[in-house]
Amino acid sequence: MDQAHAILKQYWGYDKFRLLQKDIIDAVIRHEDVLALLPTGGGKSICFQVPALAMEGLCIVVTPLIALMKDQVANLNNKGIKAEALFSGMRKREIDIVLDNCVYGGIKFLYVSPERLETDIFKARVTKMHVSLIAVDEAHCISHWGYDFRPSYLRIADIRNLLAGTSLIALTATATPEVVDDIQKNLGFVKSNVFQRSFSRSNLSYSVREVEDIHGKLIEVVKGVAGSAIVYVRTRKEAKDIAVSLDKNGISASFYHAGLDHSQRDIRQKKWQNNKVRIMVATNAFGMGIDKPNVRLVVHLGLNQDIESYFQEAGRAGRDEKKAYAVVIFNESHVDDLKQRVKLQHPGINYLKQVYQALANYYKLATGSGMGQSFDFDIRQFSERFELNHLEVFYALKKLEEEGLIGFNESYYNPSHLHIAVDNTELYKFQVANAGYDHIIKGLLRLYGGEVFNHFLTISEVQLAKFMEVDVIQVKVLLSKLHDLNIVDYEPQRDKPQIIFMKPRERVGQLSLDKVRLKRREVLAAQKSAAVINYVKHKELCRSRLLLQYFGEEMTTECGVCDICIERKKKNQTEHFHKYRHQINNILGSQPLTVEEVMDQINPSARDTFLEVIRDMVDSHELKYDKKWKLSKM
What we know:
The chain has 26 helices and 21 strands. The protein has 634 residues and is of the alpha/beta class. The protein folds into 5 domains: 3-196, P-loop containing nucleotide triphosphate hydrolases (Rossmann fold); 204-330, 3-Layer(aba) Sandwich (Rossmann fold), CATH 3.40.50; 340-413 and 496-513, Arc Repressor Mutant, subunit A; 417-491; 563-633, Arc Repressor Mutant, subunit A, CATH 1.10.10.
């Protein structure tokens, strides 16, 4: 067993790699730059985690998905692999400790949001780290032609320059040929090196249903396909309403969106994952990083704004490679909604400046201040205060984020975490001199051990309260006082949307907006939405072939299982039925013949259909068999 297989078995318990994983891992270990295109559920994280463990030094993982980042760090730590994370909204002290641990503390993986790469503190410390590999997840974000472009991704090349000779792996689930080229160019690949697994999913049946009665068709579809399902909708209200409607029709359902607090989202997700709830009705806030291979059905009510996001979400069905279904249910109002949405998502320069100025006023930020600061954000309260439409504000914030001016996290959850800021000796002296804090300090040490001196740990005030046999509020008060006394660094739980200023607050008249890029993104968005409309309106070409063509992959045969292929089969079968029935009647008009003799004379192109016609004609008493098993007309 080679080293890569041994690592896979030791930490993940698998005996063999999935398709292409080993080839990608071997290339990374050879210090080649690699672009890995693997579909949703294709095991992308294994492709950088295994080689990183096989190499000496630290792996820096760049990803924009904070929730996914936290999950992967937790999973690695649970396996006994040291991992840390840096993302927008963290306090300076916490960042400092994480970076120090990466220099001196034997950390194997450092997950970083792309915005953090641009900070002076990161650039200064990263050169002191022994970095063996840079992994760029969601690599399509680096491309102007991608569906989720982020300017901060363009700074990854600067980090490469600081770490000369460090190899890099870029990973994504969806990329058009233009995006594939862009990724390699912008990341400084010496030569093209793409490992691409086919986007084809032979077990997945794609269907589109254009109907007026959306809810009625949804109930019909979910009743027709047994097993776990996801239903994607556009709005939070729709998520709740559809879930209630399904429940009323005897179909177990729950709903999920970014407006729920973390505990609600966590409880609902676990119930669905454990098959206690059959259907999750959700906005696109749901599904990323969820490991549930037995989803049998993914339904979209309405239209995605691009093929890439649809393909990713639909691909969450059938990851166990068993038969599964991806269905779009829509009507003309959804087409109009998509076109209107694309216009809203690209507000004018003056409106972007207005919203930016309103943010600065809202948080009372002086020009040149605020960089790296994060604030709780209530979009409705903000919109009402400045007499703005909250939906237009939402899209303006997304565009300001795309321009690298702010960060906007709709569903931000950061549990309470704590670090003891003094050494053992100083802590003991404090305990002796301040008996009132002795019990909570002993609780922290008993529950969380010596690691709480080295870095921030997630803590539970409820757990501490049980240990101390006191009220949770009293625990929070004591921790806050210890923080004020500089004995601990205590960050209470946050669970509200966040605005983060990625750059110092600028004067609105000099706001750094790239007008050419903004216009290009607007044109690109219109083209992508047109591709979605073409996909759902198309009546001739196999759905799988349409999707694969979009990603630059040719499919030589039709899938045979999408709605268009099935409809064509039915049509062909009907035509064959009529033709074969007529031919059989003519041939048997003169003399009895065996089935083989009839077949020899007709030479049918669809043999199974031909035999089915004969069976049907016998059953309906149009034909009969004699004692010699010859057929004749009745």
